[in-house]
Amino acid sequence: MGEVFFRRLSRWQADSDREELADLHVAAYEEPAGEEYRNRERFLARLAEDVQRPGFDMVVADDQDGDDDEPAGVAYGYPLHRDGSWWRGFVGAVPDEVEELTASGKVFAITELMVLPEHRRRGIAGRLQERLLSAGDAELVVVLLDSANTGARAAFRAWGWDELGELRPGAGGLVLQVLTRALPG
Prior knowledge:
There is one protein chain. Helices cover 33% and strands 28% of the residues. It is α+β, with helices and mostly antiparallel strands. The protein has one domain (4-182): Gcn5-related N-acetyltransferase (GNAT) (Aminopeptidase, 3-Layer(aba) Sandwich), CATH 3.40.630.30. The relative contact order is 0.16.
């Protein structure tokens, strides 16, 4: 494995690379047979919606080993809407500081962070986060993780993220863990 280079993609570049990004998604999540297609289609639909959000930003990690042009990983997200709609279904009271930062437009959500299995444990995910967050003026970053995904939670905790609480976004029993990380202001 060679040196990793990071590049920022505009919303238009992300949209034009959507098939390659969907391939990365399938490879990164190693879904059971039969689920790959459905999850790929869900990813494409979510990406098509996300690239339209104001402030959308994406960083791609490319492994320059000369064997292929596939990205090794990607992270993307966008600033959260100031109305606080992102925390609908939050269990308990939302901390005042989170409400204030949201109202001032200073909260950014990382909505996707994925690295191919063969590139994991090389620090790529951490560097993707840092590159993604280096361009904005957010003071708080949020990630919502499926409660069942204990591996992702452990990774974010190891990167210095704090658990804020649980989000139950609707009927269906889905429980999301809300993790945050303060950024230097």
